[in-house]
Amino acid sequence: MNFIKRLLQRIFIFIVSVSTLWIVSVKIFDRLDEEIPFFLALFITYVLSAYFILPQIIHLTRIILRRSHIPKTTYAFDGLAADPINIIILGSKNDLIKAFMAIGWHQANSLNLKSAIKMIVNFILNKPYPRAPFSSLYLFGRKQDFGFQESINNSPRKRNHVRFWAVNIDPKIKISDIKFWTKKHTVDLTKTKIWAGAAIKDLGFGLTQLTYQITHRTDKNVDKQREYILKSLEKNNLVYEKKYIDAGEIIKNKYISDGKILYIKLAKIKK
Q1: Sign of the dihedral defined by the CA atoms of residues 12, 16, 21, 22, in that order
Q2: DSSP assignment, residue 14?
Q3: Inter-CA distances, 128 with 112, 118, 125, 191, Å
Q4: Please, which residues bridge with residue 213 across strands?
Q5: DSSP state, 251?
Q6: Predicted pLDDT at 68
Q7: What is the C-alpha to C-alpha distance for residues 106 and 97, in angstroms, rounded to an integer?
Q8: Which stretches of the chain are DSSP H helices?
Q9: Which residues pair with residue 244 across a beta bridge?
Q10: Where are the domains of the chain?
Q11: How far apart are CA 109 and CA 115, in angstroms?
């Protein structure tokens, strides 16, 4: 039965792939190539395919197939699994911001047209941009609330960074329960004490899987970034308590991880 199911899924994916290729090459590129110069037609075809057509087709395919994903994983706008959650920090909003300021990290700017253009220009020219914006990833039905980063060798192409989502804690639900991660949270940022984070290291220019959108290439071993943040906080005496939650699954696909989530209770920063 499982063999037949996998076979049908592969046939479905093959049909979708061939149909998408036909739409992109025949219906879009060939028609554009008749009206405008070749390279302009190629560029427009790429933009339409990578940022509009492929994300929607992949999102629809995922809904139809209902393929299982790693629990406690963030999602991109197109619905594909993105960076895994690997750190949880206990502390107020101010505690969180002050802690990352204390270890020399910068809070990311909001992503808008102005900051996006500046990020692209600085990325190409390899000029520093300590507060470069992050693309939006989604958890609990909404994009991240905060992002922090530390550039590597003062470059905008390589950086340590982490996204955080504020969460509400239902006393009836444990963090290790899948319901906690699938439930949509509406939060008051002035009252929340729990922050779920996806920490990862950017290594330079790259393309996303399947849609081939321009993005940062990331370090597959996400556990290193988790431990790097822990050591940085410990070095500055900012960790009051720490433990590992065996709530995840071992990740062996895009990322390499033991699936554990680092839980940190922040120490109060001395004035």
Answers
A1: positive
A2: H
A3: 18, 11, 9, 34
A4: none
A5: B
A6: 47
A7: 9
A8: 2-22, 31-35, 38-48, 54-65, 93-102, 113-125, 178-182, 222-235
A9: 262
A10: 2-65, 73-266
A11: 7
Which helix (H) or strand (E) is 164 found in, with range? strand 155-167
Residue 204 CB-half CA count within 13 A: 1
> From CA 147, how far away is CA 163, in angstroms rounded?
4
Q: What are phi and psi of 76, to 5 degrees?
A: -80, 175
Element (H, E) at 221: none
Of 55-59, 115-119, 130-134, 223-227, the range with the lowest mean pLDDT is 55-59
How many residues appear in the chain? Answer: 271
The pTM of the full predicted model, rounded to 2 decimals, is 0.75
Residue 178 has a CB neighbour count (10 Å cut-off) of 11
Q: Where are the alpha helices (DSSP H) in 112-269?
A: 113-125, 178-182, 222-235
In the three-class reduction of DSSP (H, G, I as helix; E, B as strand; rest coil), residue 107 is classed as: strand
Degrees to nearest 5, angle at CA 262 with 257 and 264? 165
Mean pLDDT of 189-208: 80
84: which strand partners? 73
